[in-house]
Design brief:
Radius of gyration: 36 Å
Mean pLDDT: 77
Order of helices and strands: HHH
Largest sheet: none
Helix content: 55-70%
Distance between the termini: 118 Å
Low-confidence stretches: none
Strand content: under 5%
Structural class: mainly alpha
Shape: rod-shaped
Length: 81
């Protein structure tokens, strides 16, 4: 017959090394995850806000006066003196 205590002790001997905490190992833990998640949400919100604000920008560049004086006029009457 199958002994339940033997299988339980066998399982515990295999799981105990997984449950041991190494005091020399540093991990971020739950607080690190929470901080990372909050920062990720903040960046997402900022990117969404920036995208919305950039969509509202209506930018028209003023023509360069140097280019206007150098470029020939498209009006043929302008060259007739």
């Amino acid at each position: 017959m199958f002994d339940m205590s033997a299988s339980a002790s066998l399982a515990m001997t295999h799981l105990v090394p997984l449950a041991e905490i190494d005091e020399n190992k540093v991990t971020p833990g739950v607080l690190g995850f929470i901080v990372f998640a909050v920062m990720a949400l903040a960046v997402w919100g900022l990117m969404k806000s920036m995208s919305r604000h950039m969509g509202r920008v209506d930018f028209h560049e003023a023509p360069d006066p140097k280019e206007e004086s150098e470029a020939p006029s498209a009006d043929p009457k302008a060259h007739q003196g």
